[in-house]
Amino acid sequence: MVKWGVLSTANIGRAAVNPAIQRSSNGELVAVASRDGERARGFAEAHGIPRHYGSYEALMEDPEVDALYIPLPNGLHREWTIRACEAGKHVLCEKPLALDAAECEEMADAAESAGVLLMEAFMYRFHPRTERLAALLRDGVVGDLRTIRSAFTFRLTKPDNIRLDPDLGGGALMDVGCYCVNVSRTLAGMEPAEVMATARWTERGVDDELTGMMRFEGGLVAHFDCSLTMERCEFVEAAGTDGYLRADAAFLPGTGDVVLEEHRGREGLVEHGVAGADEYLRMVEHFADCVLQGTPLRYPAAEASANMRAMEALYRSARSGRWEPVVAP
Ligand SMILES: NC(=O)c1ccc[n+]([C@@H]2O[C@H](COP(=O)([O-])OP(=O)(O)OC[C@H]3O[C@@H](n4cnc5c(N)ncnc54)[C@H](OP(=O)(O)O)[C@@H]3O)[C@@H](O)[C@H]2O)c1
After folding, report:
1. Which pLDDT does position 274 carry in this prediction?
2. For labelling alongside 251, which of 62, 228, 266, 304 has CA 20 to 30 A away?
3. Which secondary-structure segment (H or E) carries 76?
4. Is 95 a catalytic residue?
5. Of 225, 266, 262, 219, which Cα lies nearest the Cα of 244?
6. 297 in a structural domain
């Protein structure tokens, strides 16, 4: 069993990832740390976590902890991931892995030097429907893949949320657009060559709405919109010469059975049923398997750097108003 610790009392840990670790077949959640000792204690008691610490440093020093799950605000991912690696802990860090590609590379180097694993927690990639979508595309069911369309929007009502804070790495692209970029690159099977974006900026300077386009070699185009101001919408479509595949609730489908739609123009619609699964559980079990067996991660940290390079170029374009190249490392 992998012994996990969680850094902070974050909502996403409480609601999804911590319970997944607790249910996992190859891991247990043994400790939580918070900046506030009383908060750590209350959280540990409420969620059946055996040990609690009043500082992140103290959790780093717990010799029984093998792996840390880090759901801190984006602007703190780099510092605490590097410190965790230096303390010899494997790290599953929330998305987006860091604020830019250079930070991602620094974190990947720290993990490599310490001989520990580092993965970005994009859980949707572990859902069997996402895997099925990629497999159907590889089988050529849509013909020649020409366009990938996606969206991830929701309405944020609390002005003090970390997603609106420029100092903590806020923004719509950072928070939800990162999924659209990730799924587009994954389904394209290559990196975009150039990108274009337009955004709306808050007074504090974060994008609360952003629409982006990514051009790949061979003329494949991905376009998406992401927002912190619009009613919830999540989907991905992969469209080709012979038809298109569509997944609704593409990133957060819940644990029930889901459908992958195959649209074939006048020939109609084929619905591929996919049995429900917990994508968070599948992600943490994969990570723990790799820790226990010393096998490679499906998504190494270099993957996160590539995602961030595309996101950096999208931000450059949103400010310059021009197509911007995605700069290779
Ligand atoms: N994969 C997913 O499905 C998913 C979903 C939502 C969010 N996320 C990612 O998870 C991360 C956390 O998001 P969240 O919504 O769970 O955040 P959140 O509820 O606001 O929690 C962040 C935690 O970080 C700690 N923290 C340390 N310094 C802080 C600071 N200066 N300001 C605020 N909090 C600070 C706090 O814990 P203590 O006070 O206990 O130390 C806080 O509870 C982000 O990277 C986000 O992108 C992923």
Report:
1. 98
2. 266
3. none
4. yes
5. 262
6. no
Q: Residue 327: what pLDDT?
A: 86
Query: Could you tell me the pTM of the whole model?
Result: 0.98
Do 227 and 131 share a domain, yes or no?
Answer: yes
Tell me the mean pLDDT per 10 residues along the chain, length 329.
Answer: 98 98 98 98 98 98 98 98 98 98 98 98 98 97 97 95 97 98 97 98 97 97 98 98 97 98 92 97 98 97 96 98 91
Rounded Cα gap, residues 82 and 224, in angstroms: 32
Is residue 294, in this structure, part of any structural domain at all?
no
Domain that holds residue 265: 124-281+308-325
How many whole angstroms separate alpha carbon 273 and alpha carbon 309? 35
Q: Quick one: pLDDT at residue 265?
A: 85
* Nearest by Cα to 226 from 196, 181, 169: 181
Mutate to test the pocket of ligand 1, among 76, 125, 162 (most ligand atoms within 8 A of CB): 162
CB of 186 shorter than 6 A to ligand 1: no
Whether 8 is in the pocket of ligand 1, judged by its Cβ within 6 Å, is: yes
Q: Is the CB–ligand 1 distance for residue 41 below 6 Å?
A: no
Quick one: 142 and 261 in the same domain?
yes
pLDDT of residue 257: 98
Q: Which residues of 245-273 are buried (b: 16+ CB within 10 A; e: fewer)?
A: bbbeebbebeeeebebebeeeeeeeeebe
Tokens standing for 313?
A: 């170029």
Token reading at 101: 């590609």
* Contacts with 247 (C-beta within 8 Å, 6 or more apart), sequence order: 129, 130, 133, 235, 236, 237, 253, 258, 260, 261
Q: CA–CA separation, 315 vs 313, rounded Å? A: 5
Which pLDDT score is estimated for 328? 77
